[in-house]
Each structure stands twice: as structure tokens, then as C-alpha cells.
Amino acid sequence: MKFKHSITVALIFILIILSACSKEAPTAAATDPAKPGASSAPKDAAASTEPITLKFYNSSGTFTNTEFKTFIADPVNKKFPNIKVERIEPPTGTTPEDFFSSGQIPDIIYSSSSSHRKVISLGVLLDLNEYVKKYNFDLTRIKPEMLSYAKELSNKGELLELPFNSNQHILYYNKDIFDKFGVPYPSDTQMTWEQALELGRQLTRTENGVNYIGIDAEGPIGIAKNLALPVIDPKTGKSLLSTPDWVRVFNIAKQNYEIPGYIGKADKYVYGRDEFMKDRNLAMRPTWLANMVGPLEELRQQGLEVNWDIAPVPTFSDQLGKSREAQNHTLSVFTKSTHKDEAFQAIAHILSDDTQRILSRNGRVPAIINPELEKEYGADLPVLKGKKVQNVFAVKPIQEHTSHQFELDINKFVTEAAAGIAKGTDVNTAIRKASESIDKEVERLQKNQ
């Protein structure tokens, strides 16, 4: 009996020593994330394995159902088999105010610059700082200009949004229109606005009853993105339209409108996605990647393909080498979500190398720092096969400006100024009228807060 007891004691002692050794000598991968086997991804949630459905709401921006499935639903469900992500699709025209006042409870909120300030003002976004710490999420993996923008959205130190992808600008062009009129395609070298407008002049003409438009520079609001210009002074709340840079912007728009044949019937002066994709009478369109690549792919799936390609977006002569400001598409967690941990874990996985690679291969520029992913850009998207995708990265995007809380409310006055210039109003008069209207409207909005 004493012999058996001695063996038992010895075995227990050995097990204690082995256990201590295993705690004191973790694997190299666990201690050094730079070594093989290490992971930059945050630790997985110690959440319930019961089936969970996360609701996804898009507050603004183009985000097709194909993109939602490819970038969000499928990767999250593959990583977390118990989690399904379903998209909430409100009726067309529903504003964020309408949506949240209706009582619906999403878990993940997708936003772009056309809704960031509006959604934040509604107080519906969770501060993610706690979850970043809780799950050891490495913020240094996110591109600095994107993370900086996200942090600047709050003046209280909150992190209300995490960048999802960098929505950059490129110049789309319809090769058939260039071929029709024997005009060389845009160069892979970035053009100045003067060069782009001259090229557009050669393509703006009417033939067989079709009014072909050489280029729509996207008006003052679009052109201002070359300089990341705010419309309202963030400190004073006053209009900035009379500044020299804004005057430069309006003058480029004026030159665009003055191209013979540009102004269409009923004083039409705006030509966008439909004219490029469906009517196919717009030769060049500088705009966001996300605004066109996804819809062009869906059009291709319907058997309707446009003969198009891409070039670097035009800019001012003293800004060559830079693109327009990159728009931050972001993901957030709703304050009233009953699955906050799972929602954050889903977002963290969407920002993993694996999922960001899926984004890149399907036509969106990753939010994370990984040059290898950019080399794979567009590889899995049929509509980008044979396109000059290297031109997406030919010039460097600039950081998106942090807009005033009322900027979206007063952009209509910038649009009115553009319409006036298209009809012949001089730039100084249009700017003066718009500035007066902006100042009055900001004052009114401040009083009604």
C-alpha cells in the first residue's frame, strides 16, 4: 500500500512540473507575432455558439447585393458558422433619420462620407475603443489616412467607425466613343484638368441624333475633392466658397460647361452613371470606384457589357501625382444591438487579411496596409479582366476632409451655383449668392439644434 501511495504522489508531482513548464514556455508563434504561425487577427469571441443573426444596414453609398454577399455575409458565416448576416433593405429614399426612428435595430452599420456626420449626429454608433482593447484588435494595420479620418469624426476620443475600404477615384472612359471619333484614349499618365477638358472637347458632338458628351468633371463638389476642400469653416460655420481654391474649382466647372454642345436639352448639365453605362453617350467620367465597378459587373451578368477602361483621375497642374480624396467606407456597431460582441467580431474578421484579400480581388481597395493585396486587385471580378487596374494605384489618394455637421445640408447651394454657371451666371456672382445662402442656412440650423 505504501508503495502504491508513493507512486501516486510521484505521478502527481510530475504532472505539476509538466503543467508549470507548459505555462512558462509558450510557443514562438504565441509570443512573437512576427514569426511563422502567428496571427494578426484578434482573438475570437468567447460568445455563445447558438445561432445568431446580425442585421446589416447601409446608410449610404453604392453597395450591391453581390458585394454584400461576397464581402460580408459569406466570410463572416465561414468564420463563425453560427452567425448569419442579413441585409436590411429599406424603401428607396429612406434617410438615416427615417430608418432609425422606425424602430428597426441593425447590428452593423455601413456608412460613407455622405452619411457619416448624419449618422453620428443621431447618436446611434457605439464607441469601439472598449472592443478594440477587449479583442486585441491591431489598429496599426489600418491605412493611416483612413484611421486618422475615422478618429477625427469624434472630438471626444471615441472610435465610432472602422474603415472598411478605401473608395478611390479613377477616370472611366468609353473606348467605343473614342474609336468612333478617332480620338486617342486617355494616357496612363495623369492629365491636368485643362488636358482632360480639351480631350472632352474633341468628343462632345452630335451624330445621328445622339448628343455625345466628352467629359463630366462632376461639377464643383466633385472637382473640389482634388483638393479635399470643406464647404464650411469648421470653426466659424461660415462658407468657404470665396477662397482662392474654391474659385479655381468653379472655374474648371465653368470651362467644362462651356464646351460647345455640352449643355443638353432643358439645360441639362449633369451626366452620370446612367449616361455612361446605359445610354453610353458619356465618354469620360471621373468618379468613385465603388460607384461604378459593382454596377458594371452586375450589368455584365445581365449580358450587357460596356467597352470601357480606366485612367488616373485628372487634377490641377500643381497637384500632379495625387488623386482625389479617398472616401472612407466604414463599419460600425449600433448602440442598441443585442449582439455587440458578435458584431464587432464580424467587423474584425472583415478587416482580416483573408477577407480584405477578397475585397481587393473583387474590385475594392483594402483599408488595411498590405501592398500584396493591391497586386491582386480585381483578379476575381470578370468585369475587370483586361482592364488597366494598375491605374487605380498610379497616383496617391489624399485624406478625405472632415466635413462640418451641416455640410450635407448646404451642398444644395453649391449645386445651385453650378446650375447657375451652366446657364451663364459668372463665377463670382454664383459664389456670392451661394455663400450668402449657406451662411443663413447654417445659422438657422444651429438655432434649431
Automatic annotation (TrEMBL):
PANTHER family listed in its UniProt record: ARABINOSE-BINDING PROTEIN-RELATED (PTHR43649), DIACETYLCHITOBIOSE BINDING PROTEIN DASA (PTHR43649:SF12)
Gene3D superfamilies in the cross-refs: Periplasmic binding protein-like II
Protein name according to UniProt: Extracellular solute-binding protein
One Pfam family this sequence matches: SBP_bac_1
Signal peptide residue numbers: 1-22
Keyword field: Signal
InterPro entries xrefs: Bact_solute-bd_prot1 (IPR050490), SBP (IPR006059)
UniProt-listed SUPFAM superfamilies: Periplasmic binding protein-like II
